[in-house]
Sequence to fold (337 residues):
Amino acid sequence: MPNFVNIRLWKPGLKKSEQYKSLQRTCLMREFECRQKQASRFEKQISLIMTELEKHLSLVDYINIKKFFYNSACRVHSTVMSNHQKKLEKLNRGPIGQNYEEMKLKLIHNISSYTLSKVEERLLCRGWDFCVENKITNFLDFETDLELNAMKLQPHCHESIFRSICRQIHNASQQLIRTSKHKKISNLSKEELAALKSLKSNNNIIICKADKGNSIVILDKETYMKKAEEILKGKQFEPLNNDKFHREQEEKLNKYIFSLFKQGVIDNKLRYQLQSTCSSLSVFYGLPKAHKTGYPIRPIISTIGSYQYELSKFLAKAIRNARPQAKSYIKDSFEFV
Fold:
């Protein structure tokens, strides 16, 4: 129960009783209902006043007055929200929710010329593993999770309020289940979805994962391309003059695998597993090193889908299984404990 609903009692020991808590809840609910009625009454009065002003004033004066009222309401709203935030932080003994101002310094490294908005920063602070949209497939687990979480509220609520909360949760969950059987549920707000589309359509920046950690690095596209070109100018890389080099290497590998099959070294199943058909070129990209000055990029060559990918995967597994394990080898922390 909020600490600001405090009633002076003749016997201080009654504060722990159920009657006192029930009285607190009743007072709070009545205050809430009274404020709601008062707000609706004020809205009706304001709409009537604005209608009368529109009749008796010119268009310019009416727009200026409307703008003045709007600015005044925004100032009052910001003051009230600030006071409420302070109260909630005082009751919570700490900040409410995620502190994006502190998180963005650790998670976002913006070294581009593009200035991120607050919505874009909040979106990127969610990290790479955030699920943008999902679909409820197992409704039984969904209902079970709702019931388990609702049961946690029972010790902190009056019985009548708890029943009302459970009824509302049940109605909302049933409506959600009916509407989401063939629909994906978005985990982002409309502002965040718009920010996601804006970042995706911005062709002047590159948003990529850092080399270490789960942070995000934002670079100008020109800077990223220059860093990549500097790496490709190294001695370990050389340009190919033959456009058919990839196809020739694929055919050469397939002939060698077929020769192994003819010699009886591999069976027919493994032959088709290792053979390459319609393969693609390996992809080169870089991961910026956020922990180093200048943000140099670490070169990565992704061979997924290339002609030697299946063979490399098979050999890596065979070598790992054939390699003897050291006595000091520990699989994970559970084995260590």
